[in-house]
Amino acid sequence: MKELSDQQKWSIKVTMKKLGYYSSGEFARMAGVTLRTIRYYDKQNILKPSLVSEAGARFYTEEDFARLQQILLLKYLGFSLDDIQEMTIDDVDYHFLLNSLGIQLKLVKDRLEQMQLVEQAIQDTMDVIQTERTVDWSNMLNLIHLTGMEKSLKNQYQDASNISARINLHSLYSQNPQGWFPWIYEQLDLKSDLKVLELGCGDGELWKENKEKLPEQIELYLTDISEGMLRDARREIGVRDKRFYFQTADACEIPYEDDMFDVVTANHVLFYCEDIGQACKEIRRVLKPGGIFVCGAYGSSHMKEVSELVQKFDEHIILSAEHLYERFGKENGYEILKPYFDKIEWRQYEDYLVVPEPEPLIAYVLSCHGNQGQYLPNRYSEFRSYVRKKTKDGFRITKDAGVFVGKI
Predict the structure, then answer these.
(1) Which residues lie closer than 8 Å to 49 by C-beta, 6 or more apart?
(2) pTM, rounded to two decimals
(3) Which residue, 28, 72, 283, 289, has most beta carbons within 10 Å?
């Protein structure tokens, strides 16, 4: 290829400026970063140039500059470049930005708590060394553990974020005015002086929404397998409310005494248990005679239109490798529970969704446990346009959910 003259290079530069394009060097100077940074973001597919000339020169626009500002802000807030690469954000995708910033805010709060623990551990170790002239190695190992918590915390909050995206879609667009969590609370039929256990409490949404209805004299034991979820629940409900107790626990190994609870509830939890039969045995063990078990479940038609939507966009996308309702659901739950509980009944929650905008529905799709992450990021703009057309007149989604109530 013939080398361009200085005059030709100057002419191209003037023309590109008139068209609203900036060279890599100009773009870097505008943002106050190095040219090496711009090139690195290009190479890592985090920020590609809007135009590449035949000679290989890269040009950027004002829109690219806005995207770069987002990248720099998110990097400052603590997101890794891998995180940022997965995040597709523009002016209308505020749901994603709020969701991502929510995760980061929780991590910041945990870092503050974590650093207080680190400070105390260092101070304790220094005190021991000064007074006893020895090193408490177990305390030092604990210090290493504390400073290595960040990755696991982030994974936990990503899981929590996915659940929040799913709850958000229902809270925004469900047509039943009562709402799922107030309805669940109604099924519990709580009275004073009861002991209640929730398995898989998540961020405590059930109790946060119904806190004003709770009797003053009641004991509520909230458990979840995720420590991150329990931290969220404590923050949402408040540690000063003495009615609540929080503990990390697996439904298959409930850490409480026999015949301890009047009510046990598990909202869409049993199908995640490795051994559903063992979980049922444990639930029966901790229930008092005459106690009840209230168990949320889905039916086979629940949210079926969402799966159909993405399949029509790309037949390769499967939102879930397995159908959870096949492990435990409306259709087979009675037979699964029958060996452990008496007088089992199904109570249907009558509801459906009408979604009038694409972003919360897309957030729901991205939160699912399927392979959509392999196919949608590279076709995100196309997918959003597709979903926008589908939601223009309101996208109707079936809800097929309710509770089994078993007594002993």
Answers:
(1) 24, 42, 58, 59, 60, 64
(2) 0.66
(3) 283
